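Sample intake sheet
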Amino acid sequence: MPVTDTDRPRIESRSRRLLAYLGHNRDQLFVDAAVLLSWIVASAAVFRWLTLPQWAHYLVLFVGIAVYAKLTPAWERPYRSPD
């Protein structure tokens, strides 16, 4: 069942909203960081090993990150902002 905006608590403090947002999305944050770091290291190793041009490496990095961002779900906001 989808969560509606009225089901989410209202948090007034900006710092508490940030902590709630990061806490709610913590697992996805770690997965995203691990996947992207692995992509960067693996592509750098392959491009260095094959001595391919640096501009091609940047292109592959950009395309890989863009594809990953399109395929993964967006992070969720677990609160309502003050009106």
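Comment: Residues 18 and 52 are 41 Å apart (CA to CA). The chain is about 65% helix and 0% strand.
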